[in-house]
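User: Structure tokens for both sequences below?

Assistant:
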Amino acid sequence: MDKKQRILWGGATASSQYEGGFTDSKGLDTQDCRAYLPRTSNATEETRLLTKEKIEEAKRLDSGKYYPFRNGTKGFEHLEEDIEYLDELGLDLYRFSISWARLFPNGVEEVPSPEGVAYYDRVFNLLTEKKIKIFLTLNHYAMPIYLVEQYGGWKGRECIEHFMRFATFVFERWGNLVEYWLPFNEINAGYFSPFNGVGLLKGENGFDLSDVFQALHHQFVASAKTIKLAREMKLPGRFGSMIACFCYYPLTSRPEDNLKLVFEEQMNQWYCMDILSKGEYPYYAETFFENKNIVLNITDEDKKLLKENTCDFVSISFYTSSVITVEEADKTAGNLVVSTKNPYLKASEWGWQIDPVGLRTSLHKVYERYGKPVIVSENGLGARDVLTENGEVHDEYRIDYMKSYYEQAQLALEDGVPLEAYIAWGIIDIVSAGSCEMDKRYGVIYVDADNLGNGSYKRYKKDSFYWYKDFIQKYKEQNNG
């Protein structure tokens, strides 16, 4: 590999967390049904493990609850302004997602909503005019609620056909403008966060694991089908797969801790990417399925599709590392998961342990396992920012975080890992996908809104905005543009 390869620096949002624009022309999706709950020990779990009753409540206009994803941070209204900010930052690329329900309100329509098409025409045209490369996520934790009610979410094979109609339209309309494609965001979240990942509702006894893994299988097939179609259409962009990456450590040198780590890492972290990158189910899945009484319907055609349509690159979200032990130990929060506390790491206010060296370690592991170019498609610090009276946000803690992670990313590149891009998550403040709140901010651009949707939604540049702009400019100068 050429050691002089330059990392592309970017920023990201997700349609459900950013856009808002909840109108009659946009259908209700899974994220629109998640209510804000004041932060308690179990609030995050309640907002992402929804039941049929919670969905019915969300559909009522008189529920009395606030549904923050219906507002997002009003990117629908501030689009031109926000893209000007992205251009001023000097971003190489912008990762965003398309709302399935904005184009196809129920997910089953034969033709898309004209209003939805017009909005995304604006997005693509503005980014193209600014010469900002596009990293497009087709499905980022949001599917039309009709598909959940009609087919049980992704456990229904019918969703593949409807997703392909959605993907086909996107390919035909905007396919030549996209540099990087991602069919599904953090696909392994379907296992540890089934409502977000695969649209499953929680029953009286929780989730049936056969349903969870059947739903994941249908997403694997849909991913392979989109890649196959794009290649047949000769689209210029490349296709990736993405997992939430956790960099597992054993708490002690006790052999049982390390053995448990192997098993946890296999199913939580590697399972989905093994299939999407290598084209077949891994050896350990069969034993796991037998032990858990999981029965799947996998056809020979499915196997052929997976084998012949693997991803071109692998991408990861990386925020925090996890500690594994067979003993009882103090716990802390993470990216939709709970982990054992690491005594060597500091944590954010939300309990996410800060581990830049863990990122470098993970980049090595991912490349060693898959041998394909790597992209960090999400990373950032969720923190409570304060807007001063003169419209400033002094977030030196975020600057320190970015410095430490970006340094380790560049060291991984020097080590020989072909890291193509690094994308800052929530480049503009967005509603937190984990906790449904605004207090937990990631952006370098502040949005004046609170947890209940109050505020002007006016944008302000944080100190981290100026730091990131300067970092990108200097990086380009040092690496020949």
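Moving on to the next sequence.
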Amino acid sequence: MIRLIRSAIVMLLLLTAVTGVLYPLVATGLAQALFPSQANGSLIEKDGKPVGSALIGQSFTDPKYFWGRPSATAPQPDNAAASTGSNLGPTNPALTDAVKQRIDALRAADPENHAPVPVDLVTASGSGLDPEISPAAAAYQVPRVARVRGLSESQVRAMVSMATAGRQFGVLGEPRVNVLKLNMALDAH
């Protein structure tokens, strides 16, 4: 019986060392060597200081900025520690009310814009942390951002075009615009 207990303890210690220490060290080392930016959070820096991540959305509400997708995280929007969707189904009145409020906020920020509101500007994603919007969502906001910043719409459209990433490998996903990078480019202009 003591021999069985001893061998069980030895296996526990061995597997703990391999799976709890050795494997994480090797995985972390490889990630740092092969993908240093991603392993460190894909941070975006301005003047040597991190201002956000290319992978996590940020809440912009000032009319001079492009706004990202709504976030369902709590207690504040785009809380990376609380990644979650709203879990509200299409027939839930709370979702309908939230979408109406978001449309009202967009219309209040740009009362002259009567174009249909792109769905990604009024619905949260499954993670609640999307850093990107569709080119249509960016195009919808161009008149407001151009007017508030005193730029021409063609200048802002050109910046949106430069910030638009295509499909991965030309076939995967959809074209997208990283909101933080676009807003930083606008601030640098």
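User: Anything stand out in the second?

Assistant: The chain has two domains: 1-40, 42-188.
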